[in-house]
Amino acid sequence: MLRAYGENARGGAGAEVVRSRQNTAGEAQDRKEHRIGGGKGLEVHGIGGGRMLEEAWNSAAGGGGSWARLPERGGCSTMEDISDCRSRTVLHDRPVPAIHGGQPRSVDSLHYGRVQEWITVTQLRIALVQMNIEAGNTEANFAKMERKLEEAAALDPKPDLIVLPEMWNTGYALTEIRNLADPDGERTKKLVSEFCRRHGVNVLAGSIAQLRGEGVTNTIHAFDRTGVNIAEYSKIHLFQLMNEHLHLEAGGAAGSFELEGVQAAAMICYDIRFPELARKLALGGAKLLIVPAEWPHPRLHHWRTLLQARAIENQMFVVSCNTVGESGGSSFFGHSMVIDPWGEVLAEAEERETILVADIDLALVDEVRGRIPVFADRRPELYE
Question: 208 and 219 in contact (C-beta within 8 Å)?
């Protein structure tokens, strides 16, 4: 099930209204009940604010038991983490280890008895923070970033992942960038890590101008629900039309990481013009590609076409977060997007500040790759 939430639709003020979409795999995961020992059941809810293990069989191995209500979460490793997570593999047709001391320390430590099948719930709710950036005004940009993160975390239902745009801390004030850049990203990392711990959400913190030694990189930091910095990626293709090559240093490695147990990857803005990079990430297992950007007028057609092409040719979700408005002498058009593995635009923002929210079901990636076996049909020996 894919569903987008917005203003007047449980999304909170300032969220973009987009239409809902469904797919067969998502509908099948909406609600399932499975019989286990003692005639009890396990329900998995796959839409809206549900997506949780609603009840679990609270029993030691081999014995009877009673029902225990779990906190409303659907897929993390500890009881403290079980609040909003929506990516889970539920073990079926095999016993799971018994509870410890009457209170499960983790979902995997619950003994459900013997269940009859496997289910994987792989849904994520994503919030894209499309905002205007004041070139050269780092204090204003940090203040806005913190406000927007709080707005996104306050959405009901809460997102699993929040994404910020490219170079949000400085904008394209490139002639001043050495004085403006965040030394080793420390200010950004401290603020975002604490936010993730407090709210229990993942954040891909867009990209920042990061001072590293004598140079400045355009760098992504990603954080999990506990505040751990799980990924760092510096833009490897510098955009000469905006003089990036004169003021920034290019990164030296691709950006792959694991998010909620799913292989994900990141590219930054101009990177999407290089299909070789996206294919490398897909071959490495990426099912979700996240693209922070500052993509300006007049190239909206390029933006849409390139993002959809990367989704179609690699059969993966592409999530792109652009900036919007006037900044540093350039005009940015927004149109942040969520695109499925068929290349369909599931959600698209307008040309204004907003928080665009959409649900994706990553099970669709395997379905599409199974129906059109692009990766199996490759002939890499002929491509050199």
Answer: yes
Residue 204, CA distances (Å) to 36, 84, 193, 320 in order: 39, 17, 11, 11
Per annotation, catalytic residue among 76, 196, 269, 321: 269
Instruction: Examine the pLDDT at 1 and tell me if it is beyond 50.
Output: no
**Is residue 92 predicted with pLDDT exceeding 70?**
no
278, containing H or E segment = helix 275-283
Cβ–Cβ under 8 Å, residues 182 and 221: no
Specify the 3-state DSSP secondary structure of 378: coil
Task: Retrieve residue 195's tokens.
Answer: 């936010």
* Distance between CA atoms of residues 313 and 205, nearest Å: 26
Active site residue 166: yes
- Burial level of 336, CB count in 10 A (0-12/13-18/19+)? buried
Torsion angle, alpha carbons of 348, 352, 355, 359, to 10:
-10
Ramachandran angles phi, psi of 290, nearest 5°: -115, 130
What Rg, from alpha-carbon coordinates, does the chain have? 22
d(CA 129, CA 136): 20
Dihedral sign of CA atoms 276, 282, 287, 290 in order: negative
Which one of the listed residues 166, 232, 249, 294 is annotated catalytic? 166
Task: Give the CA count within 13 Å in the CB-facing half-sphere of 374.
Answer: 16
Choosing from 235, 260, 294, 321, the catalytic residue is: 235
Q: Is 235 a catalytic residue?
A: yes
Alpha-carbon distance of 301 to 240, in angstroms, equals 20
Give the pTM: 0.72
Q: Which residues, listed in sequence order, are joined to residue 339 by a DSSP beta bridge?
A: 318, 345
| pLDDT of residue 213 exceeding 80 | yes
Cα 205 to the center of its chain, rounded Å: 11
| Euclidean distance between CA atoms 200 and 129, whole angstroms | 17
Letter string b/e over residues 284-296, b meaning 16 or more CB atoms within 10 A of that residue's CB:
eebbbbbbbbbbb
